[in-house]
Amino acid sequence: MTVTELVSYEDALASYDPVMGLEVHVELGTKTKMFCGCSTELGADPNTQTCPVCLGMPGALPVVNATGVESAIKIGLALHCEIAEWCRFARKNYFYPDMPKNFQTSQYDEPIAFNGYLDVQLEDGEVFRVEIERAHMEEDTGKSTHVGGATGRIHGAQHSLLDYNRAGIPLIEIVTKPIEGAGERAPEVAKAYVAELRELIKALGVSEARMEMGQMRCDVNLSLRPHGREKFGTRSETKNVNSLRSVERAVRFEVQRHASVLSAGGTIVQETRHFHEEDGSTTSGRIKEEAEDYRYFPEPDLVPVAPSREWVEELRGTLPELPRVRRNRLREDWGVTEHDMQSILNAGAVDLIVATVEAGADSAAARKWWMGELARSANESGTDLAALPITPAQVARVAALVAEGSLNDKLARQVIEGVLAGEGDPDAVVDKRGLKVVSDDSALGAAVDEAIAANAAIADKIRGGKVAAAGALVGAVMKATRGQADAARVRELILERLGVEG
Ligand code: ADP
Ligand code: MG
Ligand code: ZN
């Protein structure tokens, strides 16, 4: 079925309610892999970070990475889950060349964390609770590169290359309970949930959760049921959706596709699907295996994980403030609207503004520079705000120079430009470029006299009482001093010279 045959989103919602299930995989930022000591560092030559354990050699024995377990418990706690007193790993048996053991070490019916929830805030401020089924530990597979075909997929490829550096990197899979009641806002809820989960994971410091780098990916399950019916419809599972926007689009597309099939009297097959960035569509993958196809059984080579209650409580004590709570607190402190806060968040500026305020700036100034001049600069160079070569302390120093009157905004922008260009700290740029507000009367006097002489008609108007006309003369002085004059002082001097009261 092509996109043009789809029923509209509105028509789909007029007849059906969407039910969603989101499965999010997060690659943990541990130094070593989940069951061996191999490095997890990105960018190494293929197959240089491998050993008998992660290559699945006979007789090699895995050992659980304690930091991996700790991260899983932290995630579970932050999601308000119960933490298992005792749980095991299980073998999920299947063959794929990127998985040299022929099974994935995962957890099946004994996840480390279960029964939780995450409250997500929608764009209009409404809070939607997403219930969490479980969060379990597992390992990543290697990476295959299919060479010679047009699509990069295995079909049509001439040969495939395998890199096992990623095999065995710890993953946490977080699975929601069926999400009901989102109605037409299902795509927005899905996106907000993944966004909130990403913020949470970052706040916990367990992963950078960069979706564009595959550190966090989402499988989107979706089904429709006619209004008023309780039983769920058959779901499809769109795999490996790897941006927030794509999550939203995948839900939307699947709602329309399911509705098209169902309204035409067809049936939905339970299958996995691929998402296509180009047009936001999905296409059929494989018919979905049932759990029994994997012949799960408890992993005999690993001891069960039995986190003591003392340890769990200790970890609970280390949890940071939840991102949503922190955001609301900052929004109130800063006195900004929900919408502005969203822009600040989207720009990745929250932590930078906080750090700038901690370095002494007031929040309005910190926001102004990060969301104005610096956002523009990041945009132009196509980098993240955080990657700009300027620190919050340097931005705070610029703000301080403005606050004390040594710089005006125009000069401050030049100082920032200098810092970004690698000319040194704000004070060094001020010195080198000679950027200082000139407020000293003897230095300004000559420029003021010249401006009056060159604009005799305007000067007459001002003498005649039209004080508002002084702006033109201030402008002339600012131009003559290349923006460095103290505008307020210039205005006073002009009025003084012309003998009128400000
Ligand atoms: P699988 O291993 O087949 O992917 P999981 O239980 O791990 O199964 O994940 C299925 C996801 O889909 C869960 O988030 C679950 O809540 C959700 N789900 C289950 N049934 C339905 C359904 N009929 N419609 C939409 N989502 C569903
Ligand atoms: Mg799944
Ligand atoms: Zn290894």
What can be said about this structure in brief?
With 502 residues, this protein is of the alpha+beta class.
Number of helices: 16
The percent of residues in helical segments reads: 25-40%
Q: What is the global morphology?
A: elongated
Determine the N-to-C terminus distance: 74 Å
Secondary structure tally: strands? 14
Number of domains: 3
Strand order of the largest sheet: 2-5-6-9-1-10-11-12-13
Query: Roughly what is the average pLDDT, rounded to an integer?
Result: 93
Structure overview:
With 502 residues, the chain is of the alpha+beta class. Helix content is 39%, strand content 19%. The chain is built from 16 helices and 14 strands. It has helices spanning 9-15, 66-78, 186-204, 244-263, 309-317, 323-334, 338-346, 350-358, 363-381, 392-403, 409-420, 426-433, 441-454, 456-463, 470-480, 487-498; strands at 16-27, 82-83, 90-93, 103-106, 113-121, 127-139, 143-147, 159-163, 170-176, 216-226, 236-241, 271-276, 281-287, 297-298. A 9-stranded mixed beta sheet has the order 2-5-6-9-1-10-11-12-13. Strands 4-3-14 form a 3-stranded antiparallel beta sheet, with no helix packed on it. Strands 7-8 form a two-stranded antiparallel ribbon. Strand 11, helix 4 (244-263) and strand 12 form a beta-alpha-beta unit. The model has no long low-confidence stretch (mean pLDDT 93). Zinc ion is lined by residues 33, 36, 38, 50-51, 53-54, 168. Zinc ion (ZN) binds at residues 33, 36, 38, 50-51, 53-54, 168.
